[in-house]
Amino acid sequence: MTATADSPILHLKDYGQSVWMDNLSRDILQSGELAQMIESRDVHGITSNPAIFEKAIAGNAIYDADIEAGIRAGKSVDAIYESLVFDDIRNACDVLMPIYNASSGVDGYVSLEVPPNLARDTESTLREARRYYAAIQRPNLMIKIPGTPEGLPAVEAAISEGINVNVTLLFSVQSYIDTAWAYIRGLEARAAAGQDVRNMASVASFFLSRIDSKIDDQLDALIANADNANRQAQLTAAKGKVAIANAKVAYQEYKRIIESDRWQSLAAKGARVQRLLWASTSTKNPDYSDVMYVDELIGPDTVNTLPPNTIEACADHCNVDSRIESDVEAAQTLIAALGSLGINLDQVMDELLEEGIDKFVQPFDSLMDALVTKVKHLSPA
Known about the structure:
By secondary structure, the protein is an alpha/beta fold. The protein has 16 helices and 8 strands. Strand 4 (141-146), helix 7 and strand 5 form a beta-alpha-beta unit.
């Protein structure tokens, strides 16, 4: 795995965007692959989620020795799970610590999600965020908290207590706005308590490809029932465009928020902006460019978290330029026109949030079931 100096992925940073990798397993830590990705692909952070850990742990013998050690120590299945995951997270944090130090805490983060079945439970989410942060003891850890109405008070409290947060499962522009203000309120509370705000970091993970997949399905159904060619053309023109348009509208809201007096007051105290992070960036439709969610959303104060296959695609053929503020008016027009096309965007976003929670709960439950089976298999007779 090599990258030349003119490899496109190495130039995203020239436009203010960091690359994080959406993948974590013990294999890439022990093999040195993560260190190699940092060196050759300019990866400056890493994210994990229950689906990633399910793939990493279930059926992988690399964890068996630690599972057996947990059995001998009399640990519960839940405690064994945490010991496996926490070790991987600590080791990833250590690999990325030089990035964290060199960037003065802007990059070099590893994200770990609280149990996804707590997405609607504020107090339990905050309790686990505190416990995870205290247990892992790394300054470059980010706790992932879903951006649900119940999750955002936990985000605010966590930030006020000095816990870095990756707010995940954001789909609608309004959910992003609410997230940004939760971060600001957390910093304000921290400052009011006489605590330093300069070392705090947060990202708002705004999901992309799932939006296009869901809306494209609805557009296809509308196209099939359209009664004239003009209507069909209008509907077809919207396919594959909504997620990027939605993200560009969100970025304009970001700019408005950081221009506000409340943010400027925090900035004067040294607070860092909460960066928008583009998530769900692997293109699902083979008819679309495999780097469309990179090329169209490059710009200052952003992060793009990419799965390994998209990282390789971008290293090969991304077309790098600052486009986050290009065609903004067209993006706003498209979002405003969706209702007249027959798309209820608010309903789509609500459904995506519920589906997103479920897409993390299911692999988490599956992983725990697999661990129960593995513990039984590895336990002495």
